[in-house]
Automatic annotation (TrEMBL):
Organism, as annotated: Longibaculum muris
Entry's Gene Ontology BP terms: carbohydrate catabolic process
GO MF term set: beta-glucosidase activity
GO CC annotation: cytosol
Active site residues of this protein: 366 (nucleophile)
PROSITE patterns: GLYCOSYL_HYDROL_F1_1
Keywords of this entry: Glycosidase, Hydrolase
Protein name: 6-phospho-beta-glucosidase
Stored SUPFAM superfamilies: (Trans)glycosidases
Gene3D superfamilies in UniProt: Glycosidases (3.20.20.80)
Pfam families: Glyco_hydro_1 (PF00232)
Family statement drawn from the similarity comment of this UniProt entry: Belongs to the glycosyl hydrolase 1 family.
InterPro entries linked to this entry: GH (IPR017853), Glyco_hydro_1 (IPR001360), Glyco_hydro_1_AS (IPR018120)
Amino acid sequence: MKKDFLWGAALSNVQAEGGYLEDGKGLNVYDTLVVTPEKGIAPMFCDTAVATDHYHHYKEDIDLMAEMGFKAYRFSVVWSRIHPMGDDEQPNEKGLAYYEDMIDYLLEKGIEPVVSLVHFDMPDHLLREYNGFLNKKVIDLYAKHVETVVTRMKGKVKYWLTYNEINLAPYQSDLVAGVYRPEGMSQSELFAQLSVNTAVAHAHAVEVIKRVDPQAWVGGMIGHAPFYPLTCQSDDIIMADFKNKMHNYLPFDIMTNGELPDYFENFMKNRNIHVELSDDERKVIKESSQKVDYLAFSYYRSNVQASFKDIKDLNELEDAVLFDTRGLKNPHYDANEWGWQIDEEGLRYSLIDLYQRYHKPLFIVENGIGIDEKLENGKVYDDERIVYYQKHINSVKRAVEHDGVDLLGYLAWSPIDFLSSHKEIRKRYGFVYVNRDFDDLLDLKRYKKKSFYWYQKVIKTNGEDL
Ligand code: BG6
């Protein structure tokens, strides 16, 4: 791997910070989220008041990252810490100061900050009063948030990410999209309008970042889980291809080509959907596409897609595939307790596929496995995590060294334990264990897991010794 390869890890602050009403922070959609449990898992959900208390432990947590030898660390600026309601005239100074101190501390430790500008944390007020990104005013408020943060951190942050997993935003959900489906609007209409609005939001963010700090690098980011056809029958292949385009490639296609792709226009034409997209918005999308420096993605697993044999109408069939909730399993792979299938070569495949499709430097900004772990005499022997990482990093090396993919770095998920996107503490991802249970905060003390020492060695040897 090249000498300046960015080894490190990533965290979503809203899932780790806690301090949810401290220092002027407002509520966001993660704080107010009412959780729908992942399939088959008993609900044991935490609130976000404390989470894993990263708000008060951030220096200690960064010290641990420095001890592991991190070259880069991705975190997110919680929108409602900066703009508590989202539509505030003035930003919250204490929020800005908090992230500036964090960045200064990272730089002092020689760790490159990689900063996400929104990560499942839209101010709750923007959901309730505006209906999130379905309302064009929210695009302006988001652009204002971006401008406030980037202006303050100018010269200190090289890598910005406009929007965490932007491809998930078009689905109706008060968590990732921060939006309700208006009565009378079909799922596919909502999908189309949100795809367009978040593309415009991303484009504005790119414009702002490049105007405020031309030296900075801007990246788009998706949550990438490739869809393989369940069988080699042509209808499954066509539907997997459709799903990959609509679910995975769409935002990157718009970001890099500067226009809506034909397959998406066709999807709308077939359904008589007319999205609101002004000439000015088309222009900003076009112009921003020249300015995107890299493409980032998270990868945890691959998926499978099958057609619905009994649906004859093609629009109906595509809608069923786009909003498929069957959770089909690939018979060739094992899964973790939450059914997330483990497919390390799927990561290599994704790297090759995305690089050949876009010819832009790529950045893996999340990869990891959630495991239910227990602290035993101050130790956590997370061999399962080590094996997962060994396999995935090996695939990354093959993609870079054999397949010629230009990769900026690899950020594992995650440095410390936090609440999962479903607010579960039982589904742990960290190299560092945080001592709390779902119903008892215990002492929130940090303990290095076995994987902590393993990853330290990997970074030290630049990925040679896995
Ligand atoms: C990614 C998100 O989709 O997956 C993270 O960016 C999330 O915020 C991660 O934590 C793992 O998912 P989960 O549901 O296990 O937390």
